[in-house]
Design goal:
- The complex is a heterodimer of chains A (324) and B (310).
- Chain A is of the alpha/beta class.
- Chain A has one domain: Alpha/Beta hydrolase fold, catalytic domain (Rossmann fold).
- Helix content of chain A is 41%, strand content 16%.
- Chain B has 310 residues and is an all-alpha fold.
- In chain B, helix 2 packs antiparallel against helix 3, helix 3 packs across helix 7 and helix 7 packs antiparallel against helix 9.
- About 3% of the residues of chain B have low confidence.
- The chains are: A alpha/beta (324), B mainly alpha (310).
- Chains A and B meet through helix 1, helix 3, helix 5, helix 6 and helix 7 of A and helix 1, helix 2, helix 4, helix 8 and helix 9 of B.
């Protein structure tokens, strides 16, 4: 029975605890036997749930890092409610700063900041504002340059987010999900499910499929004001790349990114294609920078078995060389 | 008709709905139907018959398109169901309810009379006590209620409510009309693209023989997918989507504002509206920011800002 195959699918493999909580936002720390000196703080995307990085034993990126002896911390941006709709991007950057202060053992210690998808944009802003606190910057499927011509970017440039936030208050998970599905409707609404039907008798395929679908449809809302800034300041105006983005009046200057930089991109990524990162990669002055390109898509970079064979060992090697 | 080689037992459906995300569940069921239609087409093809655009293609489109509008559809339905809460615009609904209520009342009275008569015949005694007392109380209460002087308000609604109520409903209606027109164009554009791609597929299918159902189905999906890749980036589509979305958003906003105005214009309204609550949320968020700043300053002064103990 199909239902037996997917009963009790629970995402999350590595043990973790909540260290800091601020109504909505949480800072988690994964249990590990720490061998590497520099701790890692992951700023996850506020548009999805962070457990994709630790989906299950076989595809857990966190497991990789923990087994390599890293002290891994993760920011969970939670499920914003209507009460959170006036939060702004500045509040998110502030919380990263609070987390960095918790993760650092002393005022002189530097950490590795790791951004994932829209968490990357926050990580780049933070690293530009506080370069003295960041030893390494890793950005995964990063949207930093928003001036791209993929379908999602064209759609974002052609909507008025003020009308959406005025009507819905927050950009709801359902609303955002349908946009992500409809940028490639035939493959994601028909093709993907026809493949599932083809493989209904294969327990492993079915489990993998539903692990992913649970994650895909477990979408938090984006607070109304954050959604407005995300679309207007990032997609419409591309403020970060143009050096026009400010936080509390302080300019975000990517020329401050002089720390080692690792960029993880996926060639088939239809959400944040490589062009979302390459102009940024070229513009930052860091002398120690590298791009690792996966042949997968936006999510495949994290969970595909091929990434776990090819990409993740290289990431860990790069990090170990710069963490002690 | 070819039956699908894959199916879900009916008894499994309810359990599956509990376990799977609702979106996956719906998409799975719709895709099982799509598979049936595609298999019908493949069956014809494998018999050497020429394909043409028939009802199977239309049904595939219907299943496919149903998912295009899910979250926004919810917004439209959500508003529709809310309307029942507001008496003045659903007189017909109230009248229907009134009829039902009157019928129920008549039924209860007849039932009571029937019991009373039965007990008199079979038990030889008349039903007295609580029931009669209840009747008496209701009669008294009704009389008392009728003594309260009735205020005859003008039935002309436009002069009862503040003008802002009508401004909001007018704007909402205006955007609804625009949204409806856009939606029809939107659906038409999607259908046109689908049909053109389906015709292209038919041409390919009629010029070759597919080795398997999988190959047949994959070719159909790929041709359709490419057509949509092109459409979804076109200026025509972007403009249409923008107009449709914005008109729907404006409709939602103005309809909600109308309901809010309607509520707050009534002095006995016991509810806080979402706008009132939103103002409170805004103030709380501002205060929280100030508290965070102060906390940060205190920690800096105490020299505790960075550093954990382990």
């Amino acid at each position: 029975m199909l239902v037996e195959k997917i009963k009790d699918l629970k995402p999350g493999f590595c043990e973790k605890e909540v260290v800091l909580e601020d109504w909505l936002f949480k800072l988690h720390r994964f249990k590990a036997e720490v061998k590497q000196k520099t701790p890692i703080l992951i700023s996850y995307a506020f548009i999805n749930r962070p457990y994709i990085l630790d989906l299950h034993r076989e595809v857990s990126a966190i497991k990789y890092l923990v087994e390599a002896g890293f002290d891994v911390w993760l920011i969970d941006w939670g499920y914003p409610k209507i009460a959170d709709r006036h939060l702004s991007i500045e509040d998110y950057v502030d919380f990263i700063d609070r987390c960095v202060e918790v993760v650092r053992r002393s005022p002189n210690e530097k950490i590795t900041l790791w951004g994932y998808c829209l968490g990357t944009t926050l990580a780049v802003i933070y690293a530009s504002l506080y370069p003295e606190k960041i030893r390494n910057l890793i950005i995964q499927t990063p949207p930093v340059n928003f001036d791209t011509d993929n379908t999602l970017a064209l759609w974002a440039k052609n909507i008025d987010p003020l009308k959406v936030s005025r009507a819905l208050l927050n950009a709801t998970g359902d609303f955002l999900n349908i946009a992500f599905l409809l940028i490639d409707p035939v493959r994601l609404v028909i093709g993907k499910y026809q493949s599932l039907i083809d493989n209904l008798n294969d327990e492993k395929s079915v489990k993998d499929f539903f692990y992913m679908d649970h994650w895909i449809f477990d979408s938090p809302s984006v607070p109304g004001k954050v959604f407005e800034e995300y679309i207007i300041r990032w997609y419409h105006r591309n403020e970060i790349m143009k050096g026009e983005f400010t936080v509390k009046g302080k300019k975000v200057d990517i020329k401050n990114i002089t720390m080692p930089l690792l960029v993880l991109v996926a060639s088939k990524d239809h959400i944040t294609p490589p062009e979302s990162a390459i102009p940024f990669f070229e513009a930052v002055p860091s002398k120690d920078k590298k791009i690792l390109m996966s042949e997968k898509g936006h999510i495949g970079l994290t969970v595909s078995r091929s990434s776990h064979t090819k990409i993740w060992p290289e990431v860990v090697k790069w990090l170990i060389e710069r963490s002690n | 008709m070819v039956t699908t080689d894959v199916s879900l037992p009916e008894r499994e459906l309810l359990e599956l709905f509990k376990e799977a995300p609702k979106e996956s569940f719906e998409l799975l069921l719709r895709n099982l139907r799509i598979r049936d239609y595609l298999q019908n087409l493949y069956y014809k093809h494998s018999l050497g018959l020429k394909l043409f655009y028939d009802e199977n293609f239309d049904r595939i489109f219907d299943e496919f398109f149903k998912f295009f509008f899910r979250p926004l559809e919810l917004a439209v339905y959500g508003i529709r169901s809310l309307r029942f809460l507001f008496y003045s615009f659903d007189v017909e609904f109230l009248e229907t309810q009134n009829e039902v209520s009157r019928a129920l009342n008549d039924f209860i009275i007849s039932w009571f009379e029937h019991l009373k008569l039965t007990s008199e015949i079979f038990l030889g005694r008349t039903v007295t006590g609580p029931s009669d007392l209840l009747r008496y109380f209701i009669k008294m209460y009704k009389e008392r209620f009728e003594r309260i002087p009735r205020v005859d308000l003008s039935p002309d609604y436009p002069f009862i409510f503040p003008k802002s109520v009508f401004e909001k409903i007018e704007k909402s209606t205006e955007h609804w009309q625009k949204f409806s027109d856009d939606f029809l164009k939107y659906k038409g554009t999607i259908k046109e693209t689908y049909v053109k791609a389906a015709e292209k597929f038919i041409e390919v299918a009629n010029s070759k023989t597919f080795g398997s159902y999988q190959e047949f189905s994959n070719t159909f999906s790929e041709i359709e997918a490419k057509a949509f890749d092109e459409l979804l980036k076109s200026k025509e589509y972007l403009d249409l989507q923008k107009n449709m979305l914005e008109n729907l958003m404006d409709y939602i906003y103005y309809y909600r504002s109308f309901l809010e105005e309607l509520l707050i214009s009534n002095p006995v309204n016991p509810f806080a509206t979402i706008s009132m609550i939103d103002e409170a949320f805004k103030r709380i968020t501002d205060l929280k920011r100030r508290v965070s700043e102060l906390e940060k300053k205190v920690l800096e002064l105490e020299g505790k800002y960075a550093g954990r103990k382990d």
